[in-house]
Amino acid sequence: MAIDVRWVCGALAWCVACIERPRGLRPTPPDHPPLLRAPAIWAAVLCLLGVAHGGSAQAQLASEQVEPVPTHADLLYGPDERQTLDFWAAAGDGPRPLIVIIHGGGWINGDKRLKRPPLAPFLDRGISVAAINYRLVPQHPLPAPVHDAARAIQFLRWKGETLGIDPDRIGLTGTSAGACTSMWLLLHDDLADPTAADPVLRASTRVRAAAVSVGQTSIDPDVIESWLGPAVLDHPMIFGAVGESSMAEVRAEADRHRAIYEEFSPINHVDGDDPPLFMACSAEMDLPARNSGHGIHHPLHGVKLKDRSDAVGHECHLFVPGWSETKRYADGTDFLLDKLLSLE
Question: Are 180 and 149 in contact (CB under 8 A)?
Fold first, then answer.
């Protein structure tokens, strides 16, 4: 049976949405029975669910998919113990392109060693890979998680000659909160400070492209409630982002938090000069959001940013099964390979 790789991408995005929801809350799978009957896809689904639930599938996944040992493990890119990264150097002549993986978890939890995309498609094509940790909310509210990711990019550029990195060919990828951070970095103006005493902070934060999955394009409570309904506000990513423990606390300090929510919503930074973006979303387009997990990963996040990008002439590719597709790229990996291996 022939399998459309775009539906594979959608099914895996659905699995990620499942994993990052509270247990017991599972979305309806994409309406594509032939795909979901495919044994290879169900194997991937079971492996992913094994990671979430600690079952025997997790052990099977670990035994069957042994990843390469990092060339450099737990490199410190800042003073905090969470500011570490792993780096895999790709073989090849001259400086290599780089993919930076930013893990998900609502900025609340997660780790660079968990739920990574496969490294081989990049390493085998001569693209080095870095996976980062960062400080977590609510103990370290915004801007900490996002600015940590920015500093990691600056550190990798600063160490580029030593690590063999091409500073002009750096791409990002991430899921959920890692997707939100990736999009923010892609779309935001450069954070480089040429007058900084710290040489790391003098380096650029700009990247060449990003491919993300089930990410948040806005975290502004008023905006996302108007898009998705009130259930999305129950997700701890939204109130934890500003160091609060409930939306009631956020509302009590609304004026104090407003600027942070606006600043760290990627959709507010789109312009026609931004680098290209690929977004993969689940097929769950029903509204209003049924619960917080559905809302925080709702594909309308992608639709809204795609609309904004199209309005200003920004290259943005959106895949939502049964709703939106791109004929140019099979998936996010295909997109990143094209953008990072191009010499333009």
Answer: no
d(CA 14, CA 6): 12
Alpha-carbon separation of residue 48 from 43, 52, 107, 117 (angstroms)? 9, 7, 20, 11
The whole-angstrom separation of Cα 320 and Cα 279 is 9
Q: Does CATH place domain 68-341 in 3.40.50.2300?
A: no
* Predicted confidence (pLDDT) per residue in 57-81, tens digit: 344 344 345 789 999 999 999 999 9
Main-chain dihedrals φ then ψ at residue 75, nearest 5 degrees? -65, 130
DSSP E strands: which ranges in 125-280? 128-132, 165-175, 209-213, 277-280
Compute the distance between CA of residue 160 and CA of residue 257 in angstroms, rounded to an integer: 36
Helix (H, G, I), strand (E, B) or coil at 217: coil
Amino acid (one-letter) located at 37: R
Cβ atoms of 173 and 98 closer than 8 Å: no
pLDDT at residue 54, as a whole number: 38
Say what the pTM is. 0.82
Question: Are 30 and 282 contacting, i.e. CB atoms less than 8 angstroms apart?
Answer: yes
pLDDT per position as a tens digit, 228-249: 999 999 999 999 999 999 999 9
pLDDT category, 299, cuts 50, 70, 90? very high
Ramachandran bin of 4, using left for φ above 0, alpha for ψ from -120 to 50, beta for the remaining angles: beta
SS3 label, residue 328: coil
Bridge partner residues of 102 (DSSP) = 132, 174
Enumerate the domain spans of the chain.
68-341
Q: Which of 179, 184, 110 is nearest to 143 (CA)?
A: 184
Average pLDDT over residues 180-190: 98
Rounded to 5°, angle at Cα 19 from 232 and 134:
80
Peptide bond into 138 cis (omega under 30): yes
What span, in angstroms and rounded, lies between the C-alpha atoms of 114 and 264? 24
